[in-house]
Amino acid sequence: MALKISDILSEQGLEPQFAGLSETVAQVAARLRDLRIGVILVLDKDGGLAGIVSERDIVRATAEGDGSFVSQPAVEIGTKDVVTCSVDSSPNEVYSDMLERKIRHMPVLDGAKVVGMVSMTDLLGYYRNTNSSAAASKIMEALSAGAIRSSL
Asked: Which of 35, 41, 57, 72 is the most exposed place for a label (fewest CB within 10 A)?
């Protein structure tokens, strides 16, 4: 039986972190710091995926702005057209998509519902555990070369 992304999620045992549409940049930044995570998913009022906000989005907004952005909704500085995968996707498909799009985190959907998040680090662990050293080496090279970003 072929491994699916849902199998990696069950090994993780981690729940993705969510923010609402009205949560400000300052609130999301504090949660990222407190939880020691790099990204947070933004859900709309119906629970659908509205965007993703990363530490890099906050740094970019800080460098480009005058500081007033911290009181605006975080979704405004994040990525709204989020690349996702399915619980039924294979790790190889997700890895290829992440590498091609130069992203490090991908929300996982079961139908329209967000059920998790997979990262390049998760895939690296999977490839190491399955003795696929060539794939693990490629991920490490891409991460260290800065070829993969947190979000689009």
From this structure: 35
